[in-house]
Structure formats: structure tokens, C-alpha cells
Design a protein that fits this description.
Number of strands: 8
Number of helices: 1
Largest sheet: 5 strands, antiparallel
Radius of gyration: 30 Å
Helix content: 10-25%
Length: 127
């Protein structure tokens, strides 16, 4: 066998060994699992369960004026009592949990309150 052919075979074998070693070390040093869901996309936990109906007091009348709603997949907002609120914001102890077309849903003390646009009347206590 010719010496140059032997040299090329040895060089190819060494390069292949280095490539495999490099690939194996890169696989072992991953910073995260590429098959797990990112924190921003993980589902949010459901709201706490409502207490039994017998333990709740009679619902109080809450007056809020809903002027406008903007339904959006990423940042739904509503204008309530003249304030621009995003989901998660609070007003008068109520937490805004959903914005729908023409209405908003608030949550407080295990109760859901739904207000319709422009009328300020509570649509119902949806326990």
C-alpha cells in the first residue's frame, strides 16, 4: 500500500474520531431540554375553587361602568370606570380575569362578576 494512502486513511480516521467526540460532548452540554415547553407557554393554573355556597354571604351590588372592550389573543383590555385595565389588573378589589366582546369578567372572593358594556349593571353572579 502506498504511504500517501495510509496517511490519508489515518488522517480521515483521526478527523472522524474528533468529530464524534465533539458531537458527543456538545450533546452532553445542552442547557435545556429542547422538547419541554418554555415557561411563557406553560398553561396557567386554574383559579382557586370557590367556597361552598352555604358559606358565602349574600352578594353585594357592585356598580362598574364598562366603556369599551378590546378582545385580543395576546393582550385583551377594557376601559372600566375610566381606567384602562388588562387581564390581571384590579379595580375596587375585583380582579379582571377575562375580556369578551362587549363584556368583562371579574373575580373576587370565590365569585365571578360579569359586567356588560355601557350599562354598568351586574349581569349576574355566575357562581
Amino acid at each position: 500500500m502506498r504511504p500517501s494512502l495510509v496517511f490519508y486513511l489515518l488522517a480521515f480516521g483521526a478527523a472522524l474520531f474528533v468529530f464524534e467526540a465533539t458531537a458527543a460532548s456538545e450533546l452532553l452540554t445542552l442547557r435545556h431540554n429542547p422538547f419541554t415547553r418554555p415557561e411563557a407557554l406553560k398553561p396557567k393554573p386554574p383559579p382557586p375553587p370557590a367556597p361552598p355556597q352555604a358559606l358565602l354571604e349574600a352578594p353585594e351590588e357592585i356598580e362598574l361602568i364598562v366603556s369599551a372592550t378590546m378582545v385580543s389573543k395576546h393582550a385583551p383590555m377594557a376601559i372600566v370606570d375610566g381606567e384602562l385595565l388588562a387581564v390581571g389588573d384590579r379595580i375596587r378589589g375585583l380582579k379582571l380575569v377575562a375580556v369578551r366582546e362587549g363584556k368583562v369578567v371579574f373575580y373576587r372572593d370565590g365569585r365571578r362578576y360579569v359586567f356588560e358594556i355601557d350599562n354598568g349593571r351586574k349581569l349576574g353572579d355566575l357562581q
